[in-house]
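Exercise 7 asks you to align residues with C-alpha cells for two separate proteins.
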Amino acid sequence: MNLTSKSYKGVRQGDPLSSILFNFVADCLTRMIHRAQENGLITGLISHIIPNGVAILQYADDTIIFLKHDLQGVVHLKLLLYLFEVLAGLKINFNKSEVIMLNDEENWGKNMLRFSIVK
C-alpha cells in the first residue's frame, strides 16, 4: 500500500477556502494602495474632504481605483499593479480593464491612457 500522493498547488474551484484566500490577496492590494497614498506616490479623489482621497473600492472580484489626473501617480499605480501581480501570482487583465476620465476637458486622458495603462 503506497500512501504517497502528488501535491498540487491551490484549492479547487468552489472550495469554501478559495473565497477566503482571494479576500486575503485582495486585501493585500488595498494595503499596497493605501501605503502608496501614505507615501505620496498616488492621490485619490476628493482629497480636500478625505486625507489622501478615496483611491480604491472593492466588491467581490471587482476593483475600482480612483486617481487624480497626475501622470506620475499613474506611473506609480501601474508599477504597483505589476508588483502586485508578481507578489500574488495573479494576472491583471488590462484588456478587460477600463479607464474613465471625469472632467477631461483637455483630452489629457487619451495621452495618459496611451502611455501608462495599456500594455
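Second protein for Exercise 7:
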Amino acid sequence: MCNLINGTTITLYDARVLDELEFFHIKLELHDVIYAEGAPCETLLDVDENAINFSEYLWEYGPLISSNAPCAPVLGFGDRVEIKSRFRSAISPWFDRRQKLDIIRDRLDEGEIVLLRQSEPVS
C-alpha cells in the first residue's frame, strides 16, 4: 500500500499545531490490513448506515454486502461489564484485579489526560 500523504489533500501536521483531529476510514473491495504510519490496522469493515454521507455511499457503491470478518479479535465492553471494569480500575491501587482490557483502557485514559494537560494554556 502506498503512502496516502500527498501534500495537497492529505498532509501531515505536528499534533500541537491544530486543535482538531481527522480520521480516515479506508474501505477496500475486500477487507484487509494496511499500514498506517507504520502500524498495521484494519480497513473499514462496515459502513455506518447513520453516517451523514451514507446515501452518497449507496449511490456510488450499491447495497452493502458484509460477509467479511474482522482481521483481529474485537474487544469491547457491554454496559454492565464496563461498570465492573471501571470498579476494578478504581480499586486497583489497593487490590489490583484488572484484566488486560481494563489495563489497556486505563493506559489510554492516562494518555488522554496527559494530552489534555499539555494543551491547556499556561497562565
